[in-house]
Amino acid sequence: MKNYLLITLGHNSSAIFVDNSSEEQKIIGYEQERLSRLKADSQFPIDAINEIEHNVGYEKMKGCTVLISHWFSTKWMSNPHIDVFGNCKYMNENACKKIDSYKPEQVKFVNSNFTHHDAHAYSALAFYKYHNGNEQIRVVNGPRYILVADGFGNDEEVLSLYVSHKKDEKPHLLHRVYGYQYSLGLFYQYATAFVGMKENQDEYKFLGYEAHIGDILNVEQLSTIDHHINKTVDYFTRNWVKATEPSTQNEAMIDMSKLREARKYWYSQFTNVCDAIHIDDHHAFNARCAIAYFIQQTCEWALTKFIGEYGINNLIVSGGTFYNVKLNNKLLEITNGVFCAMPLAGDQGAAIGMYEAENKKFAPQFKFDTLAWGKRRLYNFEKYSNGDNIHHYKISNDDRTSFKLLADCIAARVSDGALVNVVFGNMEFGPRALGNTSTIFLPTVDNVANNNHMNLRNEVMPCAPICTIDNAYRLFDREELDRVIGSDRFMICTHNYHKPYSKQYGGVMHNKTLDTEFTGRPQIVRNGSFMYGILKQVEMMTDAVCLVNTSFNVHGNPIVFDTKDIIDNFNFQKEHANDEHKPELFVIEIV
Fold this sequence. Notes:
By secondary structure, this protein is an alpha/beta fold. It is 39% helix and 17% strand.
């Protein structure tokens, strides 16, 4: 069987190595930001490739097939006068030498026949099939539709709809929209910058700001914004129907002048919204709430209208737009069948789709049982352990007794009200801390405030709950949970709570916009896992049916990777924590 090096260029560029040489497929992968320590790093993932080679060895990577997903113009890519490796900042000379050193059997780029959006669609369908097939969740009636929406892909593709009728059928393109000005991803991204936040980093904060819209605007002002929302929804849906051909195939990598035009257009629309309700300071809290409401409702209703035109029941989504967990909740509500959001919705997951498009004789199904693909470098960690609230353990993977004792120890500290950082085994790939690089604690409002304080985080956003499947059914609607395929293990969709709001669980309860209902973005852990043991023990000690799971990193920094990152972040937390809520750190190496 072939081995593959999967490289994705763009925001959160990444590299994944798929080792098919043994009986059991092995996956190792890193986002470039985890190693460069630059949030949302988009440079060529040379550090990620070097770290993979460090772990698997040069000999293992020799002769692999290299698949590269990108978002450049395909006309630029096909220009015979362009040396892609030598003249693109994303494929520089060092990158070229590194890839050539492996003497790859083949190097493939996405192109006009298999695009960036196609890669997203194939990866999303593969994730869905892996979880629905391996976990035998439910029988699905009718076709599965795959919707891809992001900033943009090749030749200005911004929205693509596919269908798969049969169990093993590949995605078939039904409709594609081109043009930066029709991109929901850019619409959301430019709104982030308009209100003074960081593009490609702070978009998630809008969901927190939107929840406050009823506190700052009166009925007349809301009606005014609703008028702008209706006009913008009509703008998107009208142009999505007709914009079915590439507007250009530019000879530059991307058309910067058109991007500037799109930004200018949306800035004018955001200004109109603020002017209509008499907000002058576009960076102020009330401006962020108003623009959050405007863009969120526009995205939800535009896609609702688009999906309604096709009568879609079973929906799979991918692309950076669907990191918007509230949008995913809306799409779950309006579809009656199964719903699946690819947890690697951003660019970092795209090259997996290229792998899935390979002949299965050479590329067996990609394993999505876990996203813990990044081996850490915990050099000299012993000298920091067992002092100043730092605990370090090395445990064999089959030592169930030690796992149980350690889970009970962490559960006792959590039950006593501690904020406990857990670094366990491999690091997660993708944006979510899934229990391997997490801070966990009881889900009270005060605990969330204390955690935000010691990490210098904005308090507009609540945290996410982590729970067992039995308790998920107690917290959320069973029928709705059962319609979600795979995604609820990876914190990519919100659900409505059964239980009313209380401060005891307020840290993981998010008020729906202009509504009395509350939602949460759960991670449902597998029975028998290490985190499952902690949750069951905490429940026995406190009756708490969930905990907070949030990433172990100071605001603005990527999730921690090695010894230095871990200690630097922990020292920062201790320095900024309230005296009565000093954090603890458990580092568990699996040997």
